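note to self: dont lose this again. the chain is below, predicted strucutre after it. 140 aa total, dont forget to put it in the shared folder this time
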Amino acid sequence: MSYVKITIGNEQWLAKLEEEKAPVTCKAFQSLLPYRAKVIHVRWSGEGLWAPLGDFNLGIDFENHTTYPSKGEILFYPGKYSETEILIPYGSCMFVSRVGPLAGNHFLTIEKGLDRLEKLGGEILWNGAQDILFETYVEA
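---
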């Protein structure tokens, strides 16, 4: 099993790569690590954070995709109908955009620190964008 460490501000989470369910997405995303972006609060999707990636093309298609991710089920949306993005739900979430419902590839699941994610969601909602870092996790 492979993991990714996610850092936002002074907080860190450990997320399992869903390699059996989304192998193409996981492999492509791992090739980017370490990956830095900005994360903001979602506009239409409910309780979630997103990293808008614009026209970025990871060269993948849909796999293990969903419109209704659970708390901590991180999605990669490969683009097509809306811009490319990463969605991090911290509560009730339905993945949508200005063009309507979307489906993103569930490729990461937060396993450690999930209880702290909701607090961060509120902070970003009220205080704005923060840096996010995804990096390979290697057990010490």
